[in-house]
Amino acid sequence: MSTRAIVGINWGDEGKGRMVDLIAGDYDYVVRYQGGNNAGHTVVNPYGKFVLNLFPSGIFNPGVTNVLGNGMVIDIEHLVHEHQKLEEAGFKVDDSRLLISDRAIICFPFHRLLDELQEDSLGGRKFGSTRRGIAFVYGDKYMKKGIQMGELLLGEAHLRSRIIPLVEEKNLLIEKVYGGQPVDAEEMVQWALNYGGKLKPFIKDTGLILAQAIANGKSVLFEAQLGALRDVEFGIYPYTSSSLPIAAYAPIGAGIPGAKLDSVLGIIKAYSSCVGEGPFTCEMFGEAADQLRQSGAEYGAATGRPRRVGGFDVVASRYGVRVQAATELALTKLDILSPMKQIPVCTAYKYKGELLHDFPFPGILDDCEPVVEYWDGWNCDISGVRTFADLPQAARDYVLKIEQLMSCPVTYISVGAERDAIIRRG
Ligand code: GDP
Q: 237 alpha carbon to ligand 1 midpoint, in Å?
């Protein structure tokens, strides 16, 4: 029996999906434990290139059971379409190894609509939401109004009795607060019956299944979405997601709250990127930023939005390693830095003349400036390198310095998006 969590150290988009795809074959179960379809994991493997929003990234590994955990919020229309798209792209999902928690919450079209309306109404104060309804559906969860996946199994009369009052309440918000067009409650019932009907065979008490699996010596890999700095408790609140991407939440969001994590693999990017709004102290601008964005293909997988980019941020990353309680790190996208002769690294923040080495309270981040050092680049193609010893000296030094500053071993280095573009260490 072993358990491992794969989590993001930064602002998300670190390459968690590709790491899950790489090592999922060593596990019996892969469980997504939080979030919804608001972020995308890009996976490039022998089957092709795929963007997964809701499916765990273990689906390409035969023999692995993939679970959408109770901590998730699930847009069932999106999930059905994601399944179809995978099949259209030539990958046959093994339905016998797909499970959805009966306790996960359904994200409805009116959650999406409210997200849109709120974001549009906020103007310059917008959150930078992906407009997928996530904050609104988690809001309903914690207001105890959410509708759980298991309710799809309880029949039409039950669903009607749950959906209609919820829509009536949402319409008050939609019309009276945002001046939007009301939602048709009957349409929402039909939507749930239609998409929910297709998903019924997968809806199970996944907490029980996983608890029994662990008792029988099976291994579980937990997959996070987003990164430490987007965690609602520990991130750059309020510019966070509404869920908990931290590793400590993994057993809870997977339905096995007593499970211990044997290891936490933190995915840490060789430079920084951030999609959406919020303070991003290490942000670079101008031509250097454009070049980094282009060479890193930094455009949101779920939304296509250009991501903000910056040098590696020692302060924020060290904090990410701490709150994730990472026991090892995968340093991703090292190849993207290859064109740079000198590599900018944000080693501290300056706040009112004072040097900060520890990540501060988010409310002061807007007044922090980056302290930037330049480390030597290697300035040659490393995408074909597969052993640490074969990396140029400057690239090895870059990795070793990060390892030392993070006080955590770097056990993987990725040098390309493809599954095998990886260097294993230790
Ligand atoms: P996730 O949400 O953490 O899974 O990350 P995303 O999939 O949103 O973003 C990572 C992006 O970088 C994807 O497009 C990956 O295909 C790509 N990627 C991952 N690792 C590497 C790497 O080592 N090199 C390069 N060039 N691309 C990578």
A: 25
Ligand 1 binding pocket includes 269 (Cβ within 6 Å)? no
Residues with Cβ < 8 Å from 144, sequence gap 6 or more? none
Question: How do beta strands 48-52 and 41-45 pair?
Answer: antiparallel
Q: What pLDDT does 279 receive?
A: 96
Beta bridge pairs of residue 283: 310
Tell me if the pTM is above 0.70.
yes
| CB-based burial label for 9 (10 Å; 0-12, 13-18, 19+) | buried
pLDDT on residue 40: 86
Q: Is the peptide bond before 245 cis (omega within 30 degrees of 0)?
A: no
Task: Confirm or reject: Cβ of 75 under 6 Å from ligand 1.
Answer: no
User: Which domains, from first to last, does the chain contain?
Assistant: 3-104+203-265 (3.40.440.10), 108-199 (1.10.300.10), 268-424 (3.90.170.10)
Helical axes 393-406 vs 314-324, angle rounded to 10°: 60
Look up residue 388 and give its DSSP letter. G
Instruction: Tell me which DSSP letter residue 47 carries.
Output: T
Spatial contact of 58 and 159, defined as CB atoms under 8 Å apart: no
**Is 301's C-beta closer than 6 angstroms to any atom of ligand 1?**
yes
Residues 343, 377 contacting (CB under 8 angstroms)? yes
**What pLDDT score was predicted for residue 126?**
76
Please tell me the predicted confidence (pLDDT) of residue 301: 62
Q: Which residues of the chain have pLDDT under 50?
A: none
Name the residue of 6, 7, 11, 13 to mutate for ligand 1: max ligand atoms within 8 A of Cβ.
13
Q: Which amino acid is at 372?
A: V
